[in-house]
Structure formats: structure tokens, C-alpha cells
């Protein structure tokens, strides 16, 4: 275990040294080799300092013994000065090698020279310590060991060993031949300097030891260098592995400062080695990840195992990068020295996961939660309401007549409208609430923490008001309304499915009440829902089964009393529910798209019937047909009208098309173009329910219409309500000023008729004159209409 820990620390030291060198811009393989050679030279210099120190200490120690012995100090003053000067020379060149190696490294034999000088100095030292009888000759062996460590070539070590033997032999020979005078040593027989046998034996022994140490030292150092080379190769493989690894690998001090980072890490984060010198890991980490990573650092430094870690970094260019991996701790003497991290970039994967999650839980068009996420939020809202003992509401929205926009302006405009609607819905909600797009033009909203059900009503009114404001999409000014159904937790259900279903039922009830309103769910609506389902199923075959019939209600000129038109009003003779009014099945026809074929059938039948009346000899009159919003916006409306007129044989001037003001204002620009084309054909155009659609005078001037039809809501109370009277008068005056005919619908009393006549209203329609009647009753009614007119004349309302 200790060996493994020591090896781990060694790798750490190697990597740290390499990283620091790279960071400082000085690393290369040649540089590393030079640094290794310099390290060896410096180490030898340090050892030389130690040997010199020991020799000096021993020389002083031995000299004192000699000085106080009966022999006295044996060196002369000149000999001492020479020996001291030799020692200073050693100190001088050792100082140069220790502190100026980089400057002298360029010389060829720079590593050989100090060994040669050391051998010379040892030879001098042996001479002054007795020559053949000196016991300093083992220092030769230390110098040879230095050579073996310092020099890489084995032959160089052997040659220097041979040089040492030669120098020693030369010294003995020179002293024996009296070329130089040997130094007399106390306690030693001086005759030994003249004994050839002794000199040969001592030289042979020393030379043999020197060569043996040279051979052994060179061999051992070659083995050590081979292992060191293998270690360096392993280091290099480690470097290459770490630097070429696709994983992001980094090492940091316990406080986060960088010790190492591989190429993948640098490339991903966008930093260089130099820039990391002044950075901490936590400096480039997102604030959301710092605390957790600091805690993980602390855990691994305390010896615990790290759990998989995910962190968010900010690259040098500000890009968010998500990584996941593990960290570990390297220790030295039980103290943590480095934190290692191995991780990989999962940014793309996280983005893909987030995108998949968003696609699964959010609407791609509006960005709102989809049905799946809404049901989950609804489940949570219900649980919160249960715990807090408060109410919670579900609002279900459906845009009124939205299909018209898609069919006429295209789905691109329709999509932009949906985005605008979603934006307005988000403005109307609180942060704790949820609004979602359920599908198509359907939206839903949760309202939590409600004290009373009336709180949901307040929000519903706010939403209707917000949605009713005009939408400007490109060049189109559009008006969108919505029908809202509301269910309350726990009054109308406790499960998310029931709450949403009941809100949906209430929404359809709101549509049945005329759209652009909200309705709270009640249990009675379930019956209406069943009825609606039954009607929808049978409506699809109503035309085939000849169940649809047309009733007609006359329009009368107020001044002359002449019947000028018959309005075609559709009814459904249902086999189960009896005679149904348009209010019960027309909205359903619009929702299912059946309004187009039903509308074409009504138009054809009405024109054919009017042609029959004309051929029968009745006075010429128009037949009025109501156009729904879907028909008006249908791209084949003009062709359909032309085909009906052609097939029925009726002139276009006897056809009157009624379009409600609200429908026109949904898309005024488009309505203007369609109405203009119809006028060019010769068709008479009326704006129905005028006064309810908030059209401006600027819009009205552009419409190619013939008649304004005052909504019955303003006619009902004209005798008693000054406001309704004022509105009716204003509409009549507006029509007269624009040279348009004005007709009032819903006239039921003589007083209402008198008011309209006094204020110059052109036409009237209502129960006062006639209820809607089947086609077969029209001929008889027209023949008897004179008596009806006589009665009105007798009242003084109509003139003769």
C-alpha cells in the first residue's frame, strides 16, 4: 500500500513539474534532458561540498594530533599554501558548476572536466598526506562513483578510472625517482617510499579497486539509467495518454489552484497553460456548482469516496459547459496535496435531454406547457388545495371561430395568432398558476389558492377583456374572442381528469350561449353534453336524410308597408328532439366543419325557392341568407355563390347575404375584399347585429354593404330605455348619412314600430308583422298581407 502511494505521489510530482514547465513556456524533450543533466551536476556539486567539508574537518582534526605529538606538524609553510590553494581551486570550480551550469553547459566535455580536476586534487592530497603511505587514496573511489553517476557513457567512466590509476602510479613513480619530494609522515617508516615491492603492491591494489569500482559503478548506473529511461518512457506514455484522452483531466491543489490540465480540458474550456497560472478551478465554475464541488473536495480530502459529480463551467468565451465525472485525492505524509478530476463534456447530451424534455412537456409553438405537463401541474395543484383546504379552479379556453383564420389567411398567420394569445394569457396569470396549450386552439389554466369561486370569475373576465383587444398580424387586424368553461375543486371533482372534462363541458356550454363568455360547470351540463354528442352524430347525415328545412320571415318597408325580402332561417326536424332552432346546432356545425356544406345547401334551396315564387307570379323580392364566419372566410365562397345563382336561374340582385358585424371585424381587410367581389356580382349585402361588433366608422366606410341591421337588443326597450333609443337613433342616422338602408329586427310592438318610423328607419322585421314560416305558407301569407298592413295602418303607424 505504501509503495503504491509513493508511486502515485511520484506521478503527481512528475505531472506537476511537466505542467509547470509547459505553463512557463520552457518545456521540450531536449530541455527536459538538459534539466536532468543539470540536476545530476548540481547533485554531484552538493556531494563534493560535503566531502570537502568532511576532509577539512578531518584534516584539522589530524593536524592537531600531529601538532601536539612528539613529531610536530609535518607540512612546511610552502606545502601547506600549495595544498590550501588546491582546495580553493576545487571550491572555485565546484561553485561554478553549482550555480552557473547553464552558462558552461555548451562546452563539449563540461561533465568530464570536474571529474578530472577531482582526480588531480585527490592525487595532490595523497602526495601531501604521505604519497605511498597516505590513507587518502580511497577518495579516488568516491570520485569514480561521481563519474559513474554524472557520465552516461560507460567507457568514459572506465577511462576516468584508468586515469585515476595512472595518476596514482605516476605519483608513486615520481616520488620514488625523487622527481618530486615525498612528504614525510609521522608514525610511518620512511623506507617504504624506496621499497619497490611495496610501491608495486600498493599501486596494484589501488588501481585494481579503482577499476573495479569503475566497472561496477558504470554497470550499476547503466542499470539505473535504463530503469530511469523506462520510467521516463512510462511518464511520456502517461503524458501522451492524458493529453490525448478525450476525457477532461485536471489536477488542483486543495484550494482549487491548477496543477495540471490536459489538452482536452484546455480546448474545451478555451484556456491556455499560461492563463491557468492565475486561475482557480472555482473561478471558472458557475456559481450554482461551487458550493457542491467544495463539499465534494472536502469529502475526498477526508478520505471518503467521491460520488459521481456534475458541474457547470463557464468557458473563456462565456459558453456554459456541463461536465460529469469523479474526483480523487492524492496525499503525502497523510496530508492531501492534490485533487484529481476526470470528467467528460455532457453539454450536448444535456441540451438534447432538455430539448427532449421540453418537447415532451411543452408546446413547440407557444412555449406553454402541453397537456402532459398541465395534468401533472393540475395534480399538484389539487394536492395543494387539499392540504391548504382552499379551492382551486380549472379554466378551459377555446378560441371562437379560429378555424376561419387558418382557412383564409393560412396556418402561418394562425400560428402567430396562437402565439399572441398565449402571450396575453400569461400576462393574465400569477406566477403560481399554470396556463397550457391543450391542442389546436384550446388552452387551459389552473388557478390555485382561491378563497371563493368568484375569484375565478374575476380572472375569466380579465382574460376575455384581454383577448378581445385587436391583434395586428402583418397587415391584418384581427379580433379574437374565446369561450371559457370553469370547474372548481372540490365542488366539481377532485381528479385532474374530471376537473378538465367538466371545464371542457362548461366551455361548450359557453359557446352555446353565444361565445365570448364564461360559464361555470353544473351537473345539468352533462345532459347537454350527451345531447350535444347525439346531435353531432346525427347532424352529419341530416342533409342526406332531408331533415333540414328552411323557414322564411318577411322584411317590410316601414314607409310603404311592402314586403321587400324574405329571410331564410334554417331549422332541423330532428327525429328524436323535434324541431331545433339554429342556436342549437349551428355552433356545432361550425365546430365540426359541417357549416360549409349546410350553408351551401341553404343558399341553393333559398335561391331555388325564390325563383319558384317569382315564376309563380309573386312580386319580385330578395331572399336573405345568413353567412357564418366560416362561410365568409371560405376561399370558394365567390365560386359557390356564382354556381348557386347559375343553377337556380335567379338574378344576383334578388340575393341578399347577411353577415354579422362581429364576423366582419374578425378580419376587416379580408372581409372588405370578399364583400366587394360580392357587390360586383350584384348581390345585396347586409351587416347583421349592427352595434355589437365595435366596428369603427373608418371600417364601415370601406365595407361594400347596402343595409345596416339594428340588433334586436337595441330595439327591445327603445320605448322605455333612453340609452337603447339613443343607440338606435345613432345607427339610423349613421346609415342615412352613408346612404345605406337601415332595418330593425325584433320589432314586436306597435310602439317600437312607431319609434322607428318617427326616426326615419327604412325597414323592419319581427313578430309584429310575422313569425318565421315554412315555404309553403309564404304564398298565402303574401296574399293575406294586405289585411295585416291594414291593421297596422289603422293604428296610424303605417300610412296608406
Describe the structure.
The model is unreliable at 1-9 (pLDDT under 50). The chain is an alpha/beta fold and 800 residues long. The protein has 4 domains: 2-237, no CATH class; 245-351, 2-Layer Sandwich (Beta-Lactamase), CATH 3.30.450.20; 364-522, Alpha-Beta Plaits; 538-794, EAL domain (TIM Barrel), CATH 3.20.20.450. The strands form 4 sheets. The protein has an 8-stranded mixed barrel. A 5-stranded antiparallel beta sheet has the order 2-1-5-4-3, sandwiched between helices. Strands 7-8-6-11-12 form a 5-stranded mixed beta sheet, sandwiched between helices. A hairpin with a 2-residue loop joins strand 7 (434-439) and strand 8 (442-450). It starts with a helix and ends in a 6-residue tail after the last helix. 55% of the residues lie in helices and 17% in strands. The protein has 29 helices and 22 strands.
Topology of helices and strands:
Elements: H1 2-23, H2 29-68, H3 77-99, H4 101-104, H5 113-128, H6 139-150, H7 154-176, H8 196-244, E1 248-252, E2 258-261, H9 263-269, H10 273-276, H11 287-301, E3 309-314, E4 320-332, E5 335-345, H12 347-361, H13 371-388, E6 391-399, H14 402-409, H15 411-427, E7 434-439, E8 442-450, H16 454-467, E9 471-473, E10 476-478, E11 482-489, H17 496-512, E12 518-520, H18 524-539, E13 548-557, E14 563-574, E15 578-580, H19 582-592, H20 595-616, E16 622-627, H21 629-633, H22 637-648, E17 655-660, H23 661-666, H24 668-681, E18 684-690, H25 697-702, E19 707-710, H26 712-715, H27 722-737, E20 741-745, H28 750-758, E21 763-765, E22 773-774, H29 778-794
Parallel strand pairs: 11-12, 14-16, 16-17, 17-18, 18-19, 19-20, 20-21
Antiparallel strand pairs: 1-2, 1-5, 3-4, 4-5, 6-8, 6-11, 7-8, 9-10, 13-14, 13-21, 13-22, 14-15
Amino acid at each position: 500500500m505504501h509503495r503504491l502511494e509513493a508511486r502515485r505521489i511520484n506521478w503527481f510530482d512528475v505531472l506537476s513539474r511537466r505542467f509547470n514547465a509547459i505553463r512557463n513556456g520552457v518545456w521540450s524533450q531536449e530541455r527536459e534532458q538538459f534539466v536532468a543533466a543539470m540536476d545530476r551536476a548540481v547533485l554531484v556539486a552538493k556531494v563534493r561540498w560535503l566531502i570537502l567539508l568532511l576532509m577539512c574537518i578531518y584534516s584539522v582534526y589530524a593536524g592537531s594530533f600531529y601538532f601536539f605529538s612528539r613529531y610536530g606538524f609535518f607540512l612546511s609553510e610552502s606545502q601547506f599554501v600549495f595544498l590550501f590553494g588546491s582546495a580553493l581551486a576545487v571550491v572555485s570550480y565546484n561553485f561554478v558548476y553549482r550555480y552557473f551550469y547553464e552558462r558552461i553547459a555548451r562546452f563539449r566535455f563540461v561533465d568530464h572536466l570536474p571529474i578530472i580536476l577531482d582526480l588531480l586534487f585527490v592525487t595532490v592530497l595523497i602526495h601531501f598526506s604521505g604519497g605511498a603511505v597516505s590513507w587518502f587514496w580511497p577518495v579516488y573511489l568516491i570520485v569514480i562513483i561521481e563519474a559513474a553517476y554524472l557520465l552516461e557513457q560507460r567507457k568514459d567512466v572506465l577511462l576516468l578510472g584508468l586515469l585515476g590509476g595512472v595518476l596514482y602510479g605516476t605519483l608513486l613513480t615520481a616520488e620514488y625517482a625523487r622527481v618530486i619530494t615525498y612528504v614525510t609522515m609521522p608514525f610511518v617508516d620512511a623506507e617504504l617510499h624506496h621499497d619497490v615491492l611495496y610501491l608495486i603492491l600498493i599501486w596494484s591494489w589501488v588501481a585494481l579497486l579503482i577499476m573495479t569500482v569503475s566497472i561496477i559503478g558504470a554497470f550499476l548506473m547503466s542499470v539505473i539509467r535504463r530503469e530511469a529511461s523506462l520510467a521516463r518512457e512510462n511518464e511520456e506514455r502517461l503524458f501522451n495518454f492524458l493529453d490525448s484522452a478525450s476525457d477532461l483531466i485536471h489536477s488542483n491543489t486543495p484550494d482549487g489552484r491548477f496543477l495540471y490540465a490536459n489538452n482536452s480540458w484546455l480546448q474545451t474550456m478555451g484556456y491556455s497553460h499560461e492563463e491557468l497560472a492565475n486561475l482557480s478551478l472555482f473561478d471558472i465554475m458557475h456559481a450554482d456548482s461551487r458550493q457542491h464541488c467544495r463539499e465534494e473536495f472536502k469529502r475526498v480530502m477526508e478520505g471518503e469516496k467521491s460520488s459521481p459529480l456534475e458541474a457547470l463551467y463557464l468557458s473563456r468565451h462565456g459558453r456554459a459547459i456541463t461536465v460529469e465525472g469523479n474526483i480523487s485525492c492524492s496525499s503525502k505524509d497523510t496530508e492531501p496535496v492534490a485533487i484529481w478530476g476526470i470528467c467528460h463534456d455532457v453539454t450536448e447530451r444535456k441540451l438534447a435531454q432538455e430539448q427532449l424534455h421540453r418537447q415532451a412537456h411543452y408546446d413547440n409553438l407557444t412555449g406553454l406547457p402541453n397537456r402532459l405537463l398541465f395534468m401533472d401541474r393540475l395534480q399538484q395543484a389539487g394536492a395543494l388545495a387539499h392540504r391548504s383546504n382552499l379551492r382551486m379552479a380549472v379554466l378551459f379556453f377555446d378560441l371562437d371561430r379560429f378555424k376561419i383564420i387558418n382557412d383564409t389567411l393560412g396556418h402561418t398567420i394562425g400560428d402567430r395568432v396562437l402565439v399572441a394569445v398565449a402571450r396575453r394569457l400569461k400576462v393574465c396569470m400569477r406566477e403560481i398558476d399554470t396556463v397550457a396549450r391543450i391542442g389546436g386552439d384550446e388552452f387551459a389554466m389552473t388557478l390555485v389558492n382561491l378563497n371563493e369561486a368568484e375569484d375565478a370569475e374575476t380572472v375569466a373576465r380579465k382574460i376575455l377583456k384581454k383577448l378581445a383587444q385587436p391583434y395586428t398580424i402583418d397587415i391584418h387586424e384581427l379580433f379574437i374572442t374565446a369561450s371559457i368553461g370553469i370547474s372548481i375543486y372540490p365542488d366539481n371533482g377532485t381528479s385532474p381528469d374530471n376537473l378538465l372534462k367538466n371545464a371542457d363541458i362548461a366551455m361548450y356550454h359557453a359557446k352555446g350561449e353565444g361565445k365570448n363568455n364564461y360559464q361555470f360547470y353544473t351537473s345539468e351540463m352533462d345532459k347537454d353534453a350527451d345531447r350535444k354528442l347525439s346531435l353531432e352524430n346525427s347532424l352529419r347525415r341530416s342533409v342526406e336524410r332531408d331533415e333540414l328545412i328552411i323557414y322564411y320571415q318577411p322584411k317590410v318597408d316601414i314607409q310603404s308597408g311592402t314586403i321587400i325580402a324574405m329571410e331564410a332561417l334554417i331549422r332541423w326536424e330532428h327525429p328524436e328532439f323535434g324541431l331545433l332552432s339554429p342556436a342549437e346546432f349551428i355552433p356545432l356545425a361550425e365546430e365540426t366543419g359541417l357549416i360549409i356544406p349546410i350553408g351551401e345547401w341553404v343558399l341553393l334551396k333559398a335561391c331555388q325557392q325564390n325563383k319558384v315564387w317569382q315564376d309563380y307570379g309573386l312580386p319580385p323580392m330578395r331572399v336573405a341568407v345568413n353567412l357564418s364566419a366560416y362561410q365568409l372566410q371560405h376561399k370558394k365562397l365567390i365560386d359557390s355563390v356564382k354556381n348557386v345563382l347559375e343553377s337556380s336561374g335567379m338574378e344576383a340582385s334578388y340575393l341578399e347575404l347577411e353577415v354579422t358585424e362581429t364576423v366582419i371585424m374578425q378580419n376587416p381587410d379580408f372581409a372588405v375584399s370578399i364583400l366587394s367581389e360580392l357587390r360586383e356580382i350584384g348581390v345585396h349585402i347586409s351587416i347583421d347585429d349592427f352595434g355589437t361588433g365595435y366596428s369603427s366608422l373608418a371600417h364601415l366606410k370601406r365595407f361594400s354593404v347596402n343595409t345596416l341591421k339594428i340588433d334586436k337588443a337595441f330595439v327591445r326597450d327603445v320605448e322605455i330605455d333612453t340609452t337603447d333609443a339613443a343607440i338606435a337613433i345613432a345607427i339610423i342616422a349613421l346609415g342615412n348619412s352613408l346612404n345605406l338602408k337601415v332595418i330593425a329586427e325584433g320589432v314586436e310592438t306597435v310602439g317600437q314600430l312607431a319609434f322607428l318610423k318617427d326616426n326615419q328607419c327604412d325597414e323592419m322585421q319581427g313578430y309584429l308583422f310575422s313569425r318565421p314560416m315554412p315555404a309553403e305558407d309564404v304564398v298565402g301569407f303574401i296574399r293575406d298581407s294586405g289585411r295585416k298592413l291594414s291593421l297596422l295602418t289603422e293604428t296610424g303607424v303605417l300610412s296608406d
